[in-house]
Amino acid sequence: MIHSVDTSFTSADGISFILSRTSVRRFTEETVGNDDIELLLRAAMAAPSSMNLQPWHFIVVREEDLKEELRRCLPYAKMLQGGSIGVVVCGDIALYERINRLDKEDNTLYWVQDCSAASENLLLAAHAIGLGAVWTGIYPLESRMAQLRRLLHLPSHILPLNLIVVGHPFHVSSPKDKWDPRKVHYECF
Amino acid sequence: MIHSVDTSFTSADGISFILSRTSVRRFTEETVGNDDIELLLRAAMAAPSSMNLQPWHFIVVREEDLKEELRRCLPYAKMLQGGSIGVVVCGDIALYERINRLDKEDNTLYWVQDCSAASENLLLAAHAIGLGAVWTGIYPLESRMAQLRRLLHLPSHILPLNLIVVGHPFHVSSPKDKWDPRKVHYECF
């Protein structure tokens, strides 16, 4: 049996890394560097995607005016303060047109799953490099999507999934223990 | 500035851990132990969720007969062979009923995002402990959902998102480099 895992950390490290991530909602004034932004987006793009379509786009918001606009139009974007940046994760639904014509069913909604996996990678990558992040919802709420579409000049085939706020954590946040054995079923529900 | 990240591994380790995960589609005969299954599900349940509703359920499929049924009804489940197990990640849409009554918009589809983040954590946890995994799609394809509903006795408020096949990798798989700077935009699309 061959293990494909990196040897630079132990199994326990990998698991505790995942378990120790938590949402961070308050940030220092320190800005997020461009190299760090690239690391976050590289990790996001390493997510799997249906038919390997990689439907994601990432809009990085660093300008103060635009951050203020986002705080105004999204109820949970108040934490986009200080040195934090916003990353709006979007999906390109035009990629599914050809497949849907060939197929008998509508595959378009796979964009939500793929962009969500990319978002989780982005949150974990922030945690890895000592940043903090929080995922705030946009899709499927039409009112929020419409405002983001206007604000970020999104064409009609680019749908905004969420706004991830990333910055340097103001304080240490402890992860919640969400383990619940009642959510585990064997062989059938 | 305080870093909330574990000190047991370096930043580079955390990023390379995420970047080195890849889909594994061929497995040895070695079975996946119960302790490992619990680690995978603990990691999955550490994902963030909208309104902290944690809408996920996990159906672990180990029995040969049921694995064969899954291989028969899902076109991409052929890799559920040898010692590998299946984890069907499901979402409970009944959790949104009260919120949707209070709210003016339909929040139900948040289950897809939350269960996708949990799925990505599960894939990464498998990678951390030397297992391999692959995410195979069920939702939003009605035909696949109907078959899973029957096979796993799912009540109508429990929707199947995907089947994740997990096992001991037959060989080392190299991750694809999916970095694409054209997917990155600053301030607007």
Give the tags.
homodimer; 189 residues; alpha+beta; four-stranded antiparallel beta sheet; disordered N terminus
Mean residue pLDDT of chain A: 93
Identify the biggest protein-protein contact and residues per side. A-B, 99 and 99 residues
Quickly count the helices of chain A. Answer: 6
Number of strands of chain A: 5
Based on the structure, what is the oligomeric state of the protein chains? homodimer
Can you give a write-up of this model?
The structure is a homodimer of 189-residue chains. The first copy, chain A, is of the alpha+beta class and 189 residues long. Chain A has six helices and five strands; from the N terminus they run ααβαβααβαββ. A four-stranded antiparallel sheet of chain A has the order 1-2-4-3, sandwiched between helices. In chain A, α2 packs across α5 and α3 (64-73) runs antiparallel to α6. The first copy, chain A, is globular and about 50 Å long. The two termini of chain A are 32 Å apart. At the A-B interface, α1, α2, β1, α5 and β3 of A face α1, α2, β1, α5 and β3 of B.
